[in-house]
Specification:
Low-confidence stretches: 1-8
Order of helices and strands: HHHHHHHH
Strand content: under 5%
Number of domains: 2
Largest sheet: none
Number of strands: 0
Shape: elongated
Helix content: over 70%
Length: about 230
């Protein structure tokens, strides 16, 4: 029996990617900037931990608001569709015909489908939500899960570039080790992300690495210039 393979848990993977990507990049750039200003290693770790805490909360809140907004938007459009099939049913039926025609359904078949579909208001509205508006009903618990996933992933990603500073005497030495560890982590993360998304692995990994390096180099250069 043939079994189709489709990518599952896309929301979870998306949230992990968002959290880890920013977690690796932003604290790395911050630590590089502080190292460029030649501050003590303990100040880098203090500022880094504070940034990771604030960043994880901000990123998690952003994920929550995005999920909550999707739920509110769907509910608003759902109410509007119910109102439209009550107030202007003939126009809504014509829209169903237009949708079916776009999929290659013949005129006689369209008539039969419309007659059967519009007997049930719930199914009719569900059809319009999916095929007219392109909306799927969002999971109401997804907003909270996204917030936790993104926030935790940000912490995990952020601790990687910051960890070397806990074990080095100077920020310059910490930066060298942090840069090596973070570049490797960015490459592995980019490769994994590209593989999951079925994109070119090496090209995707190098793109992620270059973004991280450019962000850190910019922060380091500006800090050096100012100091």
């Amino acid at each position: 029996m043939h079994q189709e393979k489709h990518f599952q848990s896309s929301d979870l993977i998306r949230d992990i990617i968002i959290g880890v990507a920013d977690g690796l990049t932003v604290p790395f750039a911050l630590a590089a900037g502080l190292s460029g200003a030649a501050v003590a290693s303990n100040l880098v770790t203090t500022a880094g931990v504070a940034e990771i805490a604030a960043g994880s909360i901000a990123m998690g809140l952003g994920g929550y608001l995005a999920g909550a907004t999707a739920v509110q938007h769907y509910a608003s459009e759902l109410r509007r569709e119910y109102e439209e099939i009550e107030e202007i049913p003939e126009m809504e039926k014509r829209e169903v015909v237009e949708i079916l025609t776009a999929y290659g359904v013949g005129a006689s078949s369209c008539h039969l489908v419309v007659e059967d579909l519009t007997k049930d208001k719930d199914k009719w509205v569900n059809f319009m939500m999916r095929f007219e508006l392109g909306l799927e009903e969002p999971d109401k618990s997804q907003a909270a899960r996204s917030a936790l996933t993104i926030g935790f992933s940000y912490i995990v990603g952020g601790l990687i570039p910051l960890a070397p500073y806990f074990f080095t005497q100077s920020s310059e030495q910490g930066l060298l080790i942090s840069a090596a560890v973070t570049v490797v982590s960015l490459f592995l993360f980019g490769a994994l992300k590209s593989r999951v998304m079925q994109q070119p692995v090496v090209a995707g990994a190098m793109k992620v690495v270059m973004i991280g390096i450019l962000a850190a180099a910019a922060a380091f250069g500006i800090a050096k210039l100012i100091s």
